[in-house]
Specification:
Layout: H1 7-25, E1 39-45, H2 53-75, E2 84-90, H3 98-107, E3 113-117, H4 121-131, E4 136-140, E5 153-158, H5 160-174, E6 179-184, H6 189-206, E7 211-216, H7 223-235, E8 240-244, H8 249-258, E9 262-266, E10 278-284, H9 286-298, E11 307-310, E12 317-319, H10 324-329, H11 332-347
Parallel strand pairs: 1-2, 1-3, 3-4, 4-5, 5-11, 6-7, 6-8, 8-9, 9-10
Antiparallel strand pairs: 10-12
Helix pairs in contact: 2-9, 3-4, 5-6, 5-11, 7-8
């Protein structure tokens, strides 16, 4: 049996088949040159956002960068601009589960980068990075160990010598008993080597007769234990305390208010949490750092395997010297000394050294 054929249609069919075969072999040819692929970003919160301003600011900063990236794509004339997708995961306060949850996140193979914040994250992520060699990690408030070869990890470390020293200095100036204290969630290298030593040194430089005390909650959430430790410090004569203990800080606030103690605050402008009790606030600008480093990732400019350190002179550590509650709670003479201290830190007029013993502090 013979079939009639339409030569014109046969040629068209052949040409279409050939074109489709070519596209199958070279799929990139089907897209316009310069087209961007979608980017997927995960934020890993080693805790609970509601309990920690630090983590809330990380999520806020990354979210802002994602929104800016997507808005810039909408404004572009190109219809092929990629979009950024964001997933935020709260890993909870049980630190024993963080490694497993971070591993599971990396194992999905979905995210171009996982962003987090905690001094413990680089050590946690190192074996996971080896297991998943294409996964990238960015950690804030963290640093790679000197000499480590972590080409999948980038860190931003805050010069928390600035923050701890400033908090200790006003505690020493404000204390009437000459006794101040720091209540920490846990011991870890930055706490033991920077935060507490520089807090104690700042207090002593403000008043050489100042004695400093150190207490540990044991976790980042036990408000009852925070209150108990604060009361114990009050019994020793401590009248100004710095809590760096996450959700447990709520217990410190309650006890300090009851005992007529005062608090110097980390992480955010927290004056409204306890007006009159909280006398100063000094924070690292996590939102700014998170937004900037996420945008830097989008543009492909991350120097993997390195740590960038930023501080007060760079605008990443802030002291809230103009808040009405600060002005109301702190005597003008003390505020004037603090203003001078901040200016000296910003200008490099004070050398805080690599250890608290090396501080070169001029007379204020």
């Amino acid at each position: 049996m013979k079939f009639k054929t339409n030569t014109k249609n046969s040629i068209y069919t052949f040409m279409m088949a050939a074109a489709m075969a070519t596209l199958a072999l070279f799929p990139s040819c089907s897209k316009k040159e310069g087209a961007k692929k979608d980017i997927s970003v995960a934020v890993f919160i080693p805790g609970i956002i509601a309990d920690s301003p630090t983590y809330a600011h990380v999520a806020e900063g990354v979210t802002q960068a994602v929104e800016n990236y997507n808005s810039s794509g909408e404004d572009s004339k190109s219809k092929n601009s990629g979009k950024a997708k964001l997933f935020v995961m709260e890993a909870g306060t049980n630190q024993a589960e963080w490694s497993t949850k971070l591993t599971a996140l990396a194992a999905e193979g979905t995210y171009d980068v996982i962003i987090s914040s905690n001094p413990s994250m680089p050590a946690l992520a190192s074996p996971i990075a080896k297991q998943f060699p294409s996964q990238k990690f960015i950690f804030l408030d963290a640093a790679l160990e000197e000499g480590s070869n972590e080409e999948q990890i980038y860190c931003i470390s805050y010069n928390q010598r600035d923050q701890a020293y400033v908090s200790g200095y006003i505690a020493g100036l404000y204390s009437t008993t000459g006794k101040v204290g720091l209540i920490a969630a846990q011991e870890y290298p930055i706490m033991n080597n920077i935060l507490y030593p520089y807090f104690a040194r700042g207090a002593q430089d403000a008043n050489p007769r100042t004695e400093s005390f150190f207490s540990i909650v044991g976790n980042w959430y036990d408000a009852s234990k925070g209150a108990e430790l604060c009361q114990a410090l009050s019994d020793k004569g401590v009248d100004v305390v710095l809590p760096i203990c996450g959700g447990a800080s709520q217990g410190v606030i309650s006890a300090a208010t009851e005992k007529n103690m005062h608090i110097v605050w980390f992480d955010e402008n927290g004056f409204k949490k306890a007006p009159g009790t909280i006398i100063s606030c000094c924070m690292t600008d996590q939102a700014k750092a998170a937004s900037e480093v996420t945008s830097q990732f989008f543009s492909g400019n991350i120097p993997w395997g390195t740590t960038k350190t930023v501080g007060m002179a760079d605008g990443y550590v802030k002291y809230f010297h103009d808040d009405p509650e600060y002005i109301k709670a702190v005597d003008g003479k003390i505020r004037a000394k603090m203003d001078l201290l901040i200016e000296l830190l910003k200008s490099g007029g004070i050398d805080l050294g690599q250890t608290a013993d090396e501080v070169d502090m001029p007379q204020i």
